[in-house]
Amino acid sequence: MRRALALARRGIGKTSPNPAVGAVLVRGGKIIGEGWHRRAGDAHAEINALRDAGVQRPASSVRSHDSGLRTRDSGLVLYVTLEPCCTHGRTPPCTDAIIAAGVRRVVVAATDPNPKHRGRGLRLLRRAGIRVGAGLLAEEAAALNPGFNKWIVTGMPWVIAKAALSLDGKMATRTGDSKWITGQAARREAHQLRSQVDAIMVGANTVIRDDPQLTLRHGVRGRQPWRVVVGRCPRTARVFTDAHRERTVHFTTRNLRLVLRKLGRMGVTSVLIEGGPTLLRAAFDAGVVDKVAFFFAPKVIAGSATMAKAKMVHGMWRRTGSDMLFEGDVK
Questions:
Q1: Tell me, what's the pLDDT at 166?
Q2: SS3 (DSSP) at 273
Q3: Residues 159 and 291: beta-carbon distance below 8 Å
Q4: Which among 140, 217, 227, 244 is least surrounded, fewest beta carbons within 10 Å?
Q5: Residue 225 has what DSSP assignment?
Q6: Environment class of residue 283 by beta-carbon count within 10 Å: exposed (0-12), middle (13-18) or buried (19+)?
Q7: What is the C-alpha to C-alpha distance for residues 135 and 80, in angstroms, rounded to an integer?
Q8: Which residue among 46, 83, 189, 327 is the active-site one?
Q9: What are the backbone dihedrals phi and psi of residue 163, each rounded to the nearest 5 degrees, phi first?
Q10: Do the beta carbons of residue 158 and residue 151 sit within 8 Å?
């Protein structure tokens, strides 16, 4: 299962609105097939693992309620980080493919958080005579997909508040200068964060003052996230005119809950708020922040831009070059 989790991590930031999932097929205690979900619309992790092992069979004649009389490979065990899908979306149900392949046992980490599907895939596999176990490393598996887990249940994206701060908690000087508070390593880490979310959000003031690109740079590659601008601003900025302008969404309203609901309907499951103190404070006041990623630089600015108050849980500090990154869930 730990190997399946490692495979699933390869899909983080690439599979939305689907979750990142990994799967490992074992026979006689040895891994014979591996797979992970690479992008929405492509084969799921279970299918890729079956293909890798060369045991995938046509599932067209299989019904998920088939009895356990189907011939099974006595040593074939599938480990998967999320409950296999049991409905036909962009791809056929994975439960049918697992049944057709003759898998004897399926070990699942996390169950499907979708209230409409939760546990149904497991029941269908059991009904087909497959031994099923669930809950192995479930917390680690669930932690892979916080955006999907929240969005599929509530329709709202998972929100990360990101900021670069001085030791005295300032985001800008008294003149409003906020560029390059942190060093190169921290900036690369911030771009890694961008590559793992569906959208980056800033306020109109940031667009007017900094004219940011909001693209993936510093050696970080991946799918360009949506760029979300909140508030009124001229549409001459780079986010409205550059090569990625079709990936920019502009909301003149400052009602963040309304904005996030609309993004959720677009299939956006995660948002990184990179705006200045005004937008960040509004996000905390609205109670929409789920996690923080605060980069602290070893300098004192004595500026005026500060953050709102919020309580954190499960906090963790780590070094990024000369700076420190604090990550924690908002209580």
A1: 86
A2: strand
A3: yes
A4: 217
A5: P
A6: buried
A7: 11
A8: 46
A9: -150, 150
A10: yes
Residues 215, 221, 225, 230: is their CA dihedral positive or negative? negative
What is residue 68's predicted lDDT score, i.e. its pLDDT? 46
Share of the chain above pLDDT 90, in %: 77
Q: What average pLDDT is seen over the chain?
A: 91
Nearest to 110 by CA among 86, 158, 145: 145
Strand partners, 78: 25, 106
The whole-angstrom separation of Cα 95 and Cα 70 is 14
* 237, amino acid identity: A
Which amino acid is located at 200 in the chain?
I
Which residues touch 246 (CB under 8 Å, ≥6 apart)?
A: none
Smallest CA-to-CA distance from 261 within 156, 170, 136 is with 156
The residues of the chain scoring below 70 in pLDDT are 59-73, 172-180, 302-309
The string of DSSP letters for 74-114 reads TTEEEEEEEPPP-S-SSS--HHHHHHHHT--EEEEEE----
Report the alpha-carbon angle 87-91-92, nearest 5: 50
Q: What is the pLDDT of residue 298?
A: 87
Q: Is the dihedral of CA 82, 222, 197, 92 positive or negative?
A: negative
Write down the pLDDT at residue 176: 55
CA distance 164 to 178: 9
User: Known catalytic residue: 46?
Assistant: yes
